Amino acid sequence: MTASTQKAGHESIEQNSAKRQKLANLFREFLDHESVVDAQGSLAAYECDGLSAYKKLPLLVVLPETVQQVQQVVKICSEHRVPIVSRGAGTGLSGGSLPHEEGIVLSLTKMNRIIKLDKLSRTAIVEPGVCNLAVSDASKQMGLYYAPDPSSQIACSIGGNVAENAGGVHCLKYGLTLHNVLAVKLVLANGELMLIDQQSMQTQGYDLLALVVGSEGMLGVVVEVTLKLLAIPECARVVMGIFDDVEMAANSVADIIARGIIPAGIELMDNPAIRAAEDFVQAGYPVEAEAILICELDGTEQEVEAQIGGVETFMKAAGATETRLARDEAERLLFWSGRKAAFPAVGRISPDYYCIDGTIPRKTLGVVLREIMRLSEEYELPVANVFHAGDGNLHPLILYDANVEGALEKTEELGSKILLFCIAQGGTITGEHGVGVEKIGEMCVQFSDLERAQFHAIRDCFDPHGIMNPGKAIPTLARCAEFNAMHVHNGKLPHPELERF
């Protein structure tokens, strides 16, 4: 390092320190002292989300408690052109809340009140820091619950769910976050408060709610959400199908749905995932099976009883060696506990894992799983598969050791190959984890130059100065050129890797 480089580095540190102190003083005029985090050691707690392979220290962190405080924070950042990264519980898996080194992290964890539960309208009005599972727990006494149930629902926040359009094991029948949100209050990049309410049958104009849900904090800060609640089903039963072939298990999913049965959820786990989950929670899984399907049916007693026999018949016809029906509610929950604990379970058998999130047509499940297995052998990296089979949302977990030089880069390359294959099969690069920083390159392949230009134009309408979560989700032209993805010409595929598919 030259003397001039060292000098420039010291000057940058000093400038950041002065900027940090100036902003901290401005924020502490209306926030408690401890609600402004500026100590270097404390900032490390916010350096990443669930995608821990990427880490950055923010300039500082603020934790407002009211909508008005959020507005004041945003106005100050707008005036000083300071980047804002909104953050909920930090459970995201795509780096969506990765800090900006010259910006603030706007943590919404203190905004954790359930404002109103309404049994008559079946709605819940909540702040963004409310835990997903807390909504169902609070509304259970009314005979209601909130349907979207990500595997991290015990920790993830509603604000984060809105940012990523989270799903869960029951999204096949009950939809993603988008289908269960009725209204949001959004603090725009200039600090103004905007209500987007789609509850009225007379709503006119563009569907801005669908635009905001899944926008990864790039259009504003969500400070209040109105959720749709559902009646707790009269009956819910789980059938487990046991297979000695992963492709047979995958192909049976489309067969079941094609027969007119829409399960509340249908999940697939392959042998590595089965073994890890069983060792972790003792859910009663058959550890010698190559794959299992966990299929839940809910509704009235009569509906469920009528469908159980059909599902078991279809599974056996598709190659299941055995089917098991949960004997009671306790065993039903036990079967699900293994699936919901699959990610941490896999984390116990490998120093690190990298979770992919791609979605494909159900009919291609078997083809894609076969390609994942081939790529796993090619890269000599084990892959455990656990995913929402009903809507084709894959979650391959690539096992690796980050302490081995080059292992992360090799793992990321394998993950990219899987996502590109999903695109080639008519799928998409994300189902519920978002794009964040993880999949920006693949966005260049899935969308054309014109489509990405429209994405930027929409963002500019909401945030003309580009302070809301900059560098996430929507790639620049330079980033796409770096990824070697050009727009489609004369029907040719936009990336060399896709040409062989």
Q: Report the strand count.
A: 20
Distance between the ends: 46 Å
CATH fold type of the largest domain: Uridine Diphospho-n-acetylenolpyruvylglucosamine Reductase, domain 3
Total domains, how many? 4
Overall structural class, as computed from helix and strand content, comes to alpha+beta
pLDDT averaged residue by residue: 93
Which CATH C-level class of the largest domain is it?
Alpha Beta
The CATH architecture of the largest domain would be 2-Layer Sandwich
Number of helices in the DSSP assignment = 17
The helix content, as a percent range, equals 25-40%
What would you call the shape?
Answer: globular
Topology (SSEs and partners):
Blueprint: H1 3-27, E1 36-37, H2 40-43, E2 60-62, H3 67-80, E3 84-87, E4 104-107, E5 114-118, E6 123-126, H4 132-139, E7 144-145, H5 158-164, H6 171-174, E8 181-187, E9 193-197, H7 208-212, E10 221-228, E11 230-231, E12 235-243, H8 246-258, E13 265-270, H9 271-281, E14 291-299, H10 301-317, E15 322-325, H11 329-340, H12 342-347, E16 352-355, E17 358-359, H13 365-379, E18 383-388, E19 393-394, E20 396-400, H14 407-424, H15 440-446, H16 449-462, H17 477-482
